[in-house]
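seq/struct pair 1
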Amino acid sequence: MFTVNILYTGTGGSARKFAEEMVASGLVERIRAEKGNLRYEYYFPMEDPESMLLIDAWENEEALDFHHKSPEMREIAALREKYHLSMRVKRYLEVT
């Protein structure tokens, strides 16, 4: 399993607005329906109202690579730009 943690940071509540638009547009549900998606969830740190954490997990690297080439990924990039968000990404591989 591959897990990607993305910390989005903005100003003026833009990280929360980004997440709200992702959900309202149906984009989150489409991503969750992609083959190999195991988890796609947003969390908001209590100490930092201008950030949001996305935890995104995939069955394998191939599923994650497919997602990165999907139309949904282009929509995410456009929304990230719209809300002027920066991001820090960490990837984890579960070893059993």
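seq/struct pair 2
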Amino acid sequence: MPTVEFQGHSFQVDEDGFIDDFNNWNENWVEYVKSTEGIKDLTDEHWKVINVLQDYYKKNGIAPMVRILSKVTGYKLKYIYELFPSGPGKGACKMAGLPKPTGCV
């Protein structure tokens, strides 16, 4: 499994760059993903999406479908793409420490 080094921290990642284990997630991981996604500053809106994704994952063991993410956050899909340019599945889930989604996130 590949390793990512960022600001003195090491993270094991899968072949798609998602962190190996949700339990290894921390704010250093968020900073790493932010830098790779081209996001300058994280806003409260970013954190709201991250927290919703994490809460849903903790309860259900999977990432929520986009429809659910949009409903719970109150953000339209277009806005989520503005927050996370690579999308809710790749950018947001990766930043939240979730495994790569297999369905329609």
